[in-house]
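[Discussion] Sanity-checking designs against the backbone

I'm trying to build intuition for which residues belong where. Below is a structure token string of 222 positions. I'd appreciate it if someone posts a full sequence so I can compare it with mine line by line.
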């Protein structure tokens, strides 16, 4: 393996660094998502039932025990919805602010993972092009004493970087789309749950029928 990296050139070491960084980001995000319990949203029905009975404090206590970002949004929705001094617009703005902060925390480092997935093949191609240039320069320097192994050896060494770049990019891109999908599910669950809660207080934001249908489709798999 060390010999392959030497033959591939400096680009191979850059790609190795990017692969380590991508692996670290993926493991970090998987741990964060697992610890937050993104898929565990059964508590939403319990909170809604408590609110329907007028047990606001019980609903808040139930939400505080949850680590899910959906719970943080609902906690804000219950606290603001129960405040008679806050208008529907003020409640919507505050709930949106809390939800945006939770989504930003979930999306952290995903852009870096996407950048690695897009840049790795390009770096691999760069290494291949520079390797091909070096191979043809060696072929030209050989003059009339042309040895086919000079060209073939230079070509396969140059192609190492492209292969390694794709090896880094494919898992990174797959992980990015998976993690991004999880964030989209949470975003839809936040909106759906907050609307359910705020409607109980008569302070729900304006949502047309198309938005309701889209939310139902997005949260069907939760």
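Best answer:
Here's mine. Compare freely.
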């Amino acid at each position: 393996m060390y010999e392959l990296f030497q033959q591939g050139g400096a680009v191979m070491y850059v790609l190795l660094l990017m692969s380590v960084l991508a692996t670290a980001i993926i493991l970090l995000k998987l741990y964060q998502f697992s610890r937050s319990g993104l898929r565990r949203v059964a508590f939403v029905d319990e909170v809604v039932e408590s609110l329907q009975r007028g047990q606001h404090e019980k609903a808040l206590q139930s939400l505080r025990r949850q680590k899910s970002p959906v719970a943080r949004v609902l906690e804000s929705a219950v606290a603001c919805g129960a405040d008679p001094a806050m208008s529907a617009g003020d409640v919507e703005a505050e709930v949106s602010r809390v939800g945006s902060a939770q989504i930003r925390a979930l999306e952290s480092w995903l852009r870096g993972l996407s950048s690695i997935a897009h840049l790795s093949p390009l770096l691999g191609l760069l290494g291949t092009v520079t390797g091909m240039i070096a191979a043809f320069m060696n072929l030209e320097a050989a003059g009339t004493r042309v040895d086919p192994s000079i060209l073939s050896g230079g070509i396969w060494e140059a192609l190492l970087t492209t292969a390694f770049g794709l090896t880094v990019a494919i898992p990174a891109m797959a992980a990015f789309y998976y993690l991004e999908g999880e964030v989209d599910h949470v975003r839809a669950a936040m909106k759906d749950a907050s609307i359910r809660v705020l409607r109980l207080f008569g302070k729900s934001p304006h949502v047309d029928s198309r938005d309701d249908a889209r939310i139902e489709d997005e949260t069907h798999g939760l």
